[in-house]
From TrEMBL:
Family named by the database record: Belongs to the class-III pyridoxal-phosphate-dependent aminotransferase family.
InterPro entries: Aminotrans_3, Aminotrans_3_PPA_site, PyrdxlP-dep_Trfase, PyrdxlP-dep_Trfase_major, PyrdxlP-dep_Trfase_small
Protein's name in the database: Aspartate aminotransferase family protein
Key words of the record: Aminotransferase, Pyridoxal phosphate, Transferase
Xref: PANTHER family: AMINOTRANSFERASE, AMINOTRANSFERASE CLASS-III
Pfam family, one: Aminotran_3
One GO MF term attached to the UniProt entry: transaminase activity
Length: 446
């Protein structure tokens, strides 16, 4: 009998071209199945998914309600062009509008996060008649031409020059303050003064939008200090600039609210989403529009569209996901777990491990930042390290996997981003495994 698992691996290596990677170095784990917060490979080896795949699997693997919704929709109508109305699409849009911040009421659907940001920028430019977009260092907004230009991390470098009109600024990062601030209050004040200066030097009348991740995800789980987002909103209002909140990673319960901006009561003009909207079961993303943008395109055509905008299978999965999240009060559960379980446990890790410089987060969105020296805050591995320079982090990853936990790591950080439905026991078990694994990082720390 043919060994299917071996075939899957062999065909992958022979024919699959993977994202962001040098192909020959790859040795992918072939995943056979998953349930809830666990998945297993073809040899039956199980991992606790502390990455939620790519921080999208909010309801865990194979949630029966979401699986059934996709099956029912598939049996009824698999696809329909975007010009038609469709019950799954209408309901998904209504549910998203119901949980959206403030007066955002309309949804433009895309296939994922990068297309959402591309279209949000197009909407902002069309609404304001201006072309510049201000985007932050330490951000990720997607891999297509416009979104990769908005991105403030090394993934942009090999893709330049790309979209014209993007101007960069620094957002707040209290642990490594770009503004030499010594308190959160000072960080807010100086980050806003810096942004205001960028406005002045660029000419506010040329700026269409500011785009930011409400809580920066991959680039560090950077939580805006009190007053920052409100200050950006005020600055944008003063100059007629639109605020785009990228909630692709931070939205749909991840931060313990439907959207991360809800923590600070700030209402953006445009919110982009993807990932958690349907737990990633079928590709889906989109832009939620406020009245200013909607009214612009109420009378004149919006110059954008996609064959799969509002795909019925993806929208049916979104409807089921949002219903489950509402019925099971998932955002509230996440908020509770974050404060009651994760925060105190990670604070203990900081006390115990000389390699832990900082822990920060909210909901089920946390970062453990690893350093060689707590005094100087020298990173455990340098920014954008690869190869031998990245070895200490590779060792941490290997130690987590040996302990049955699939971690999310980026540069010198381990992120704690499990599915929102993880049991409390599994959550503690996973953090305990990271706790053990960090001893290999301690060996590199002063
Ligand atoms: N924006 C943020 C904040 C993200 O984290 C990501 C993906 O990780 C994207 C946009 C891009 O989303 P996608 O990969 O679905 O295009």
């Amino acid at each position: 009998m043919t060994d299917q698992r071996t075939d899957a691996y062999r065909d992958d290596r022979a024919h699959v071209f993977h994202s962001w990677s040098a192909q020959r170095a790859l040795d992918p784990v072939v995943v056979d199945g998953g349930e809830g917060a666990t998945f297993w490979d073809e040899s039956g080896r199980r991992y606790l998914d502390f990455a939620s795949q790519l921080v999208n699997l909010n309801l865990g693997h194979q949630h029966p309600r979401v699986v059934a919704a996709i099956q029912e929709q598939a049996a009824k109508l698999c696809t329909i062009a975007p010009t038609f109305g469709n019950a799954a699409r209408s309901e998904a849009a209504r549910l998203i509008a119901e949980v959206a911040p403030g007066d955002l009421r309309h949804v433009f659907f895309t296939n994922g996060g990068t297309e959402a940001n591309e279209h949000a920028v197009r909407m902002a430019r069309g609404t304001t008649g201006r072309h510049k977009v201000l985007a932050a260092y330490r951000s990720y907004h997607g891999a297509t031409t416009g979104s990769i230009t908005l991105t403030g991390d090394p993934r942009r470098w090999a893709n330049e020059p790309a979209m014209p009109g993007v101007v960069r600024f620094f957002g707040p990062y209290p642990y490594r303050s770009p503004f030499h601030a010594t308190s959160e209050e000072q960080e807010t004040q100086r980050a806003l003064a810096h942004l205001e200066e960028v406005f002045t030097f660029e000419g506010p009348h040329t700026i269409a939008a500011v785009i930011l991740e409400s809580v920066v995800g991959t680039n560090g789980i950077l939580i805006p200090p009190p007053g920052y987002l409100a200050g950006v909103r005020e600055l944008c209002d003063r100059h007629g600039v639109l605020l785009i909140a990228d909630e692709v990673m931070s939205g749909f319960g991840r931060c313990g609210e439907w959207f991360a901006v809800d923590h600070w009561g700030v209402v953006p003009d445009l919110v982009t989403f993807a990932k958690g909207v349907n737990s990633g079961y079928v590709p889906l993303g989109g832009v939620i529009l406020g009245p200013r943008v909607y009214e612009t395109f109420a009378e004149r055509p919006f110059p954008g569209g996609l064959t799969y905008s509002g795909h019925p299978l993806a929208c049916a999965a979104a409807v089921a996901t949002i219903e489950v999240m509402r019925e099971e009060s998932v955002p509230e559960r996440v908020r509770d777990l974050g404060e009651r379980v994760v925060r105190p446990r990670l604070e203990k890790l900081r006390e115990r491990h000389p390699s832990v410089g900082d822990v920060r987060g909210l909901g089920l969105f946390w970062a453990i930042e690893l350093v060689r020296d707590r005094e100087t805050r020298e990173m455990l591995v340098p920014y954008n390290a690869a190869g031998p320079a990245a070895k200490p982090m590779a060792e941490v990853v290997a130690a987590c996997k040996e302990r049955g936990v699939w971690p999310f790591t980026h540069f010198n950080r381990v992120h704690v981003v499990p599915p929102l439905v993880i049991s409390e026991d599994d959550l503690l078990r996973g953090i305990d495994a990271i706790d053990d694994a960090l001893e290999v990082a301690d060996a590199h720390a002063a």
